[in-house]
Amino acid sequence: MAENQTTYDFTSIEKKWQEYWEREKTFRAEDDSEKPKFYALDMFPYPSGAGLHIGHPEGYVASDILARYKKACGFNVLHPMGWDAFGLPAEQYAIKTGTHPSVTTKANIENFRRQIKSIGFAIDWEREINTTDSIYYQWTQWIFLKLFQRGLAYVDEKPVWWCPNLKAVLANEEVVDGKSEVGKHPVERRNLRQVVLRITAYAEKLLEGLEDLDWPDSTKRQQKAWIGRSEGAEVQFAIDGLDEKLEVYTTRPDTLFGATYMVVAPEHPFLEKLVIPEKVDEVNAYVEAAAKKSDLDRTDLAKDKSGVFTGSFCINPVNGEKVPVWVADYVLISYGTGAIMAVPAHDERDHEFAEKFDIEIKQVIARPNKDTESNDLPYSGPGVMLNSGEYDGLKAEECKSKIISDLEKKGVGKGAVNYKLRDWIFSRQRYWGEPIPLAWVSKEDYEKAKITEGPVKESLPETPVKSDKEGKTFYALPLPPSELPLKLPDVENYQPAGTGESPLATISEWLEIWFDLETGKSISRNDPKPDGSNWVSATRETNTMPQWAGSCW
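Request: output the structure for the sequence above.
Response:
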């Protein structure tokens, strides 16, 4: 039997056609075409390593098949490629190699491009983008300014994951099993000043939009659970001995009479006021331990409950009873108000906690068709009100709205809608990211900017964005679009500062500026102050944008 000795020389044949495609611009999308349009967008790779891994072509092959098919069907196909090159992976690679991020990023991109071209994908390379190019990220900054102008960006102290080894703040997605995804270093909770995007303003739209998506039902359910819409009431409990009120959010106002203790999150701003002197050391140790746990660890139903009594009490607004206030890590500062009324007879976590610490368990809802107490607790289903004063004998579900109405009449509560969805922490305390185009000025200069006609005034939000530092309050002014891009300064030291601030905070010639309240122009304070009354002293925002700002938008 004869053997076929002919071999197919993949390398030479593929190289020939790849050169032809590039020379003839075979896959270039036409600018003005009558053909139907098709846009194939891959997830841009992070050029944070020496080259591609197998997962890159695995996804790109699928989109390439579709792009080629659509082109064969007569579509004008746009199939671009780009580089999501800002962010922690690229910065850590640069730190690891001891080379500036701009240098390593450029070298990595050249190699990534070479590898992708060698595979022969049908890509329009004339549409190649790089998120670190200032001509590109000026539009990332422009989008931020639009959000800022609409009141959708603000500054706040937020509990975040801090990695001492990386000297950086990490997103929840960058923390796995209590360690950083990059390097597997231990992480801890720390409050830092952050620029935040008000994504919760779109919670209802996000829910409604799910109905229009052709997604599997299981995926939609996951998204709905992530957004976590609930209806209930905000209730104010007076703090015994203080002229303060502790506000809680509850989905079960019908169980108010069964609240036998309160719990505040370890990060709650009132905690310091609530702790009596004899409990300070114990509470401080507990708070320190809680800071090392993830939200998943803290809310795991299977975990052993822990907590410390603060020594203080609150007054239940519906019956006047005193209830003890505890601090416990199963309550999260990021949900509701960061404090809860605990009803151990009708909530599993509260019941476990109460049994462990010998706290009263008071049943206030009986099972349907029963009007007596039961030993089978906790019970969270429907039923009849019990031990609830004037509401006894009424159906619990019907009492929710009545109790909310009565709370509103007394001025101690109101109906409320809450979401598990949290506002998006949008800043990072590192060098390799898009600069945030804001300048900080005094209140006096901010008030002047509000009445000075020009692009700065036109870009101001309705509500001022302010931040406290060293006992002083500063106000954020936007750089107008005409002053974009705000470029990242070229520096030798791009290592994280380790103080919670970006390395940009140490670059005085970039940080400290003269700012024109009319035009938004700025120059370094190393230069003489320009003539004119509109030029004021200001400092730039030193946080940078997160990695996905340049790719998500």
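The CA atoms of residues 226 and 400 lie 25 Å apart.
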